[in-house]
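A student in our group prepared the protein record below, which I am reviewing. I have pasted the whole thing underneath without changing anything:
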Amino acid sequence: MSIVLAHSTARLYHRAPYRPLSERSYPPRSKRLRTGPCDTALVQDARIKLARYGVPPELLERVHVLVSEAGERRLSDSVICHVLRGTMPAGSIIPLQGGICVTDIRQTALDAARDLSFRELVEFYYELCGAYELPFEEADGYRERPALTTTAELARYFEKTGRRHGVELARRAIRYVRDGARSPMETAFVMMLVMPKREGGLGIRGLEMDYRIEVNARARHLTARSCFYCDAYLPRIHLDIEYHGFFHDDEMRAVEDDERERALRAMGHGVMAIRRWGFFNRAAFGRFMLCIRRKMGISPAALPDGFELRQEELRRFVLRRMA
């Protein structure tokens, strides 16, 4: 008998600051999930385990688990059972301790499509494929950590999953995610550029995050750097779009930013940057986005009715957690 932590409980595990750095997984190949009836003693042990990993106990009042048959469900306000009758792909279960398992990051990402809206799902996938994780308490800062997965890995998993509930939304959401976000604000900024126009984004394809540009002979006299990394780069028009947070206000950092811009322009790359205050100011941000639209050749006729209102709604959504 075992329990498999899933859905929002699995998301808490993968965000926990003290979870194991290395994880083994099973099954070695796809097989049918078999759990047995949900055991309340194991659920309580799982709460204790997750709390030791750093999950606040108040977030564990309800625990979500997978069961293999409807008859294995337990009717309880504190345990939510989800029936999964199909096969579990290889490596999609992580054992924690005797009888307690959790879905791996790919299955957790797929299950999230049953719980989150489209915008929330895209945002969550950026976090999984980026170098940060959000805190449990909004007042706390985000934590840096290596990416948990990649957009390609998630897309492959979603494609081979079959007709499971939520998979179509997951497949749609991953198309608007890019690897390499280093902070929630970078995610917020890039979502404004790549999300579909009907959602208030610019629908830009081909954008790459954390894009590396080597310094060539034309710019070696302008900088001691051998390369630069771009927050958001548009290869088609050779444009680097940067988000400048608080630390860019430092005088020395401002000098480095100027040096970087001169070197990139000398190599034929355009540079645009928006500061934090400009992102939070509706009018300033609207002008910035209009400038990008013009550079990309996005005509007003290509935008849906009420686009400005949709853009503002999306801006408020991506900034809702930011102070």
About this structure: The chain has a mean pLDDT of 91.
